[in-house]
Amino acid sequence: MENLAPSHPSNAAVLGGTFTLPGMSKPVHRMGYGAMQLAGPGVWGAPRDPDAARAVLRHAVAAGVNHIDTSDFYGPHVTNQIIKEALHPYPADLVIVTKVGARRGEDKSWNPDISREGLTGAVHDNLRNLGVDALDVVNLRLMGKIHGPAEGPVAEPLAVLAELKAQGLIRHIGLSNATPTQVKEAQTITEIVCVQNLYNVAHREDDAFVDDLARQGIAYVPFFPLGGFTPLQSSDLDAVAASLGATSMQVALAWLLQRAPNLLLIPGTSSVAHLRENLQAASLTLPPEVLAKLDAIAAEAVPQGH
Ligand SMILES: NC(=O)c1ccc[n+]([C@@H]2O[C@H](COP(=O)([O-])OP(=O)(O)OC[C@H]3O[C@@H](n4cnc5c(N)ncnc54)[C@H](OP(=O)(O)O)[C@@H]3O)[C@@H](O)[C@H]2O)c1
């Protein structure tokens, strides 16, 4: 097993300290893990190496990761089944966050489905495939402009999720790919504990949103923290990383951890070596002159997902 046990006092620093989602009794380390990369190519079907996929999850948990992001539409079903195979019965401190609101087509497409039947079915799929009686956190994933949000009403699907919460099938609710207006509307229906949107060192369209959520004590969980399907590529980032003796991915993650205390990281990887590298990013401190250099990357980047 790994030398980093979850209860080890130095782990708080190693994994970026902790954050407690509103209304939740168990804090999570700010450095978590996103499981989307565990399905097959195109987030479809079985992984090329199922043993390696399970090893990544077990390594993450052994290193103290207690926040895992997933969805039953990864695979579909496959990623949740791998999580269950690798980790069930789950450690008491583990928080698994899933999302509903989309359905995969046979052509591997991602289609919105926020109908009552679709959402209810998705919650039951997640419960069954993860092997739990209640889901810790369910994000309503709005399809908007796929990787960027678009305004539109959210009350109806959230009312469905709030009913499932009242039935005890969901403990907490969040939103993904959402605008500040949609979060405000959602808060009239139910408590929102986290927002999961596209954000990274190069794509900072949500800067003001991050700060507003921090003031409310709500977690902001960036998806594509490393750039996602097209991992971040920047000569400025590479130069900064070289000057610190770190990798570009570690600098990208360290920047997010330093950006705001309510940022929870869920970098995705299918590789134990990359996972190790990513977790080590939490012990990297970026000095002010480095932060200034990284600001240039955002200024030069082409907006993504909008
Ligand atoms: N709410 C949403 O709509 C939404 C959308 C997308 C993702 N998500 C969630 O967010 C999580 C993170 O996003 P993501 O996985 O799509 O993208 P990401 O974390 O930005 O990047 C993942 C990519 O980076 C590579 N990578 C990871 N660590 C690396 C390292 N140290 N060195 C080099 N390459 C590295 C991975 O390849 P390897 O496998 O080879 O390491 C993979 O190709 C997902 O896992 C998922 O849980 C949510």
Q: Can you tell me about this structure?
A:
This protein is of the alpha/beta class. The chain has a single domain (11-231, 260-270), classed as Alpha-Beta Barrel (TIM Barrel). It contains 11 helices and 11 strands. It has helices at 11-14, 50-62, 78-87, 116-130, 155-166, 180-187, 207-216, 235-244, 248-259, 272-280, 288-300; strands at 18-19, 28-29, 33-34, 67-69, 95-100, 102-104, 110-112, 135-141, 170-176, 192-196, 219-220. The strands form 3 sheets. It has a 7-stranded parallel beta sheet with strand order 3-4-5-8-9-10-11, covered by helices on one side. The chain has a two-stranded antiparallel sheet with strand order 1-2. Helix 2 (50-62) crosses helix 3 (78-87), helix 4 (116-130) crosses helix 5 (155-166) and helix 8 crosses helix 9 (248-259). Mean pLDDT is 94; it is low at 1-9. NADP nicotinamide-adenine-dinucleotide phosphate (NAP) is lined by residues 34-37, 69, 99, 141, 176-177, 196, 223-228, 231, 249, 266-271, 274, 277-278.
